[in-house]
Amino acid sequence: MTRLKIAKLCFYIVAIGLFGTGLIYMFLGTPMPYHLDAMQVAWSDLPQQYQVIITAFQRGAASGFLGGGIAIAMMTFFALERGGSWVRWGILLMGLIETIPAIHSVSQVMKHTPGEPPLGALVIFTILTLAGFFLSKSKNEPA
After folding, report:
1. Where are the beta strands (DSSP E) in the chain?
2. Segments forming the whole domain that contains residue 76
Protein backbone atom coordinates (compact mmCIF):
# COMPACT_ATOMS: atom_id res chain seq x y z
CA MET A 1 0.00 0.00 0.00
CA THR A 2 1.41 3.40 -0.96
CA ARG A 3 1.91 6.30 1.43
CA LEU A 4 -0.89 8.23 -0.28
CA LYS A 5 -3.33 5.33 0.08
CA ILE A 6 -2.50 5.03 3.78
CA ALA A 7 -2.94 8.81 4.14
CA LYS A 8 -6.33 8.61 2.45
CA LEU A 9 -7.35 5.77 4.74
CA CYS A 10 -6.36 7.86 7.77
CA PHE A 11 -8.36 10.83 6.50
CA TYR A 12 -11.40 8.70 5.66
CA ILE A 13 -11.40 7.13 9.13
CA VAL A 14 -11.36 10.62 10.65
CA ALA A 15 -14.10 11.80 8.28
CA ILE A 16 -16.33 8.82 9.07
CA GLY A 17 -15.70 9.21 12.80
CA LEU A 18 -16.55 12.90 12.80
CA PHE A 19 -19.57 12.42 10.56
CA GLY A 20 -20.82 9.51 12.68
CA THR A 21 -20.42 11.52 15.87
CA GLY A 22 -22.32 14.36 14.25
CA LEU A 23 -25.18 12.07 13.26
CA ILE A 24 -25.44 10.66 16.76
CA TYR A 25 -25.41 14.10 18.36
CA MET A 26 -27.91 15.46 15.83
CA PHE A 27 -30.54 12.74 16.05
CA LEU A 28 -30.21 11.18 19.50
CA GLY A 29 -32.75 13.53 21.10
CA THR A 30 -31.14 13.37 24.54
CA PRO A 31 -27.60 14.01 25.71
CA MET A 32 -25.12 11.18 25.61
CA PRO A 33 -25.00 9.09 28.81
CA TYR A 34 -21.66 10.65 29.77
CA HIS A 35 -23.24 14.11 29.56
CA LEU A 36 -25.92 13.03 32.00
CA ASP A 37 -23.27 11.46 34.25
CA ALA A 38 -21.40 14.76 34.20
CA MET A 39 -24.55 16.68 35.16
CA GLN A 40 -25.51 14.05 37.74
CA VAL A 41 -29.16 14.35 36.85
CA ALA A 42 -31.68 12.29 34.94
CA TRP A 43 -32.83 13.83 31.66
CA SER A 44 -36.45 13.65 32.77
CA ASP A 45 -35.60 15.63 35.93
CA LEU A 46 -34.31 18.63 33.98
CA PRO A 47 -36.77 21.46 33.33
CA GLN A 48 -37.93 21.57 29.72
CA GLN A 49 -36.18 24.88 29.01
CA TYR A 50 -32.86 23.29 30.07
CA GLN A 51 -33.57 20.31 27.84
CA VAL A 52 -34.16 22.66 24.91
CA ILE A 53 -30.90 24.55 25.52
CA ILE A 54 -28.82 21.40 26.00
CA THR A 55 -30.31 19.83 22.87
CA ALA A 56 -29.58 23.02 20.90
CA PHE A 57 -25.95 23.04 22.08
CA GLN A 58 -25.62 19.37 21.19
CA ARG A 59 -27.01 19.97 17.71
CA GLY A 60 -24.64 22.90 17.27
CA ALA A 61 -21.73 20.59 18.08
CA ALA A 62 -23.23 18.03 15.71
CA SER A 63 -23.19 20.56 12.89
CA GLY A 64 -19.47 21.10 13.37
CA PHE A 65 -18.74 17.37 13.40
CA LEU A 66 -20.91 16.77 10.33
CA GLY A 67 -19.36 19.66 8.42
CA GLY A 68 -15.84 18.65 9.38
CA GLY A 69 -16.41 15.04 8.38
CA ILE A 70 -17.94 15.99 5.05
CA ALA A 71 -15.20 18.54 4.29
CA ILE A 72 -12.39 16.08 5.05
CA ALA A 73 -14.03 13.34 2.99
CA MET A 74 -14.65 15.66 0.03
CA MET A 75 -11.14 17.11 0.05
CA THR A 76 -9.66 13.63 0.33
CA PHE A 77 -11.81 12.18 -2.45
CA PHE A 78 -11.79 15.04 -4.95
CA ALA A 79 -8.61 17.00 -4.40
CA LEU A 80 -5.88 15.25 -2.41
CA GLU A 81 -4.05 13.66 -5.34
CA ARG A 82 -4.29 16.59 -7.72
CA GLY A 83 -4.90 19.65 -5.56
CA GLY A 84 -1.43 20.51 -4.39
CA SER A 85 -0.20 21.00 -0.87
CA TRP A 86 -3.08 23.32 0.09
CA VAL A 87 -5.37 20.28 0.28
CA ARG A 88 -3.32 18.42 2.84
CA TRP A 89 -2.97 21.64 4.86
CA GLY A 90 -6.72 22.19 4.62
CA ILE A 91 -7.45 18.67 5.83
CA LEU A 92 -4.95 19.09 8.65
CA LEU A 93 -6.53 22.35 9.77
CA MET A 94 -10.07 20.99 9.52
CA GLY A 95 -9.15 17.90 11.52
CA LEU A 96 -7.33 19.82 14.22
CA ILE A 97 -10.02 22.51 14.43
CA GLU A 98 -12.50 19.73 15.16
CA THR A 99 -10.42 17.62 17.54
CA ILE A 100 -8.21 19.92 19.61
CA PRO A 101 -11.01 22.06 21.10
CA ALA A 102 -13.07 18.91 21.65
CA ILE A 103 -10.15 17.29 23.49
CA HIS A 104 -9.91 20.37 25.70
CA SER A 105 -13.65 20.31 26.43
CA VAL A 106 -13.66 16.60 27.15
CA SER A 107 -10.65 17.01 29.44
CA GLN A 108 -12.48 19.68 31.40
CA VAL A 109 -15.54 17.46 31.78
CA MET A 110 -13.35 14.59 32.96
CA LYS A 111 -11.45 16.82 35.39
CA HIS A 112 -14.44 18.52 36.99
CA THR A 113 -17.29 16.00 36.78
CA PRO A 114 -17.90 12.27 37.09
CA GLY A 115 -18.67 12.12 33.34
CA GLU A 116 -16.38 10.01 31.17
CA PRO A 117 -16.61 11.25 27.57
CA PRO A 118 -14.73 9.41 24.80
CA LEU A 119 -11.36 11.14 24.96
CA GLY A 120 -9.63 8.19 23.29
CA ALA A 121 -11.57 8.54 20.04
CA LEU A 122 -10.65 12.21 19.76
CA VAL A 123 -6.98 11.47 20.39
CA ILE A 124 -7.07 8.75 17.73
CA PHE A 125 -8.71 11.13 15.24
CA THR A 126 -6.00 13.71 15.97
CA ILE A 127 -3.21 11.16 15.49
CA LEU A 128 -4.77 9.89 12.25
CA THR A 129 -5.12 13.46 10.96
CA LEU A 130 -1.45 14.12 11.66
CA ALA A 131 -0.40 10.78 10.18
CA GLY A 132 -2.43 11.42 7.03
CA PHE A 133 -0.91 14.87 6.72
CA PHE A 134 2.67 13.61 6.89
CA LEU A 135 2.02 10.56 4.71
CA SER A 136 0.33 12.63 2.00
CA LYS A 137 3.38 14.83 1.41
CA SER A 138 4.63 14.26 -2.11
CA LYS A 139 8.31 13.57 -2.70
CA ASN A 140 8.87 16.77 -4.65
CA GLU A 141 6.95 18.99 -2.24
CA PRO A 142 9.11 21.33 -0.14
CA ALA A 143 9.28 20.66 3.59
Report:
1. none
2. 3-135
User: How many helices (DSSP H) and strands (DSSP E) are in the chain?
Assistant: 5, 0
Q: Is residue 141 part of a domain?
A: no
The pTM assigned to this predicted structure is: 0.93
Report the length, in residues, of the chain: 143
Q: Do residues 75 and 18 make contact, with C-beta atoms less than 8 angstroms apart?
A: no
Query: Is residue 140 situated within a structural domain?
Result: no
Q: What are phi and psi of 121, to 5 degrees?
A: -65, -40
pLDDT digits (tens, 9 = 90+) for 72-114: 999 999 999 887 789 999 999 999 999 999 999 999 999 999 9
User: What total of structural domains would you count in the chain?
Assistant: 1
Q: How far apart (Å, rounded) are the C-alpha atoms in residues 8 and 30?
A: 34
Please list, residue by residue across 3-34, b when 16 or more beta carbons sit within 10 angstroms of its beta carbon and e when fewer do: eeeebbbbbbbbbebbbebbeebbeeeebbeb
Query: Is residue 142 a part of any domain in this protein?
Result: no
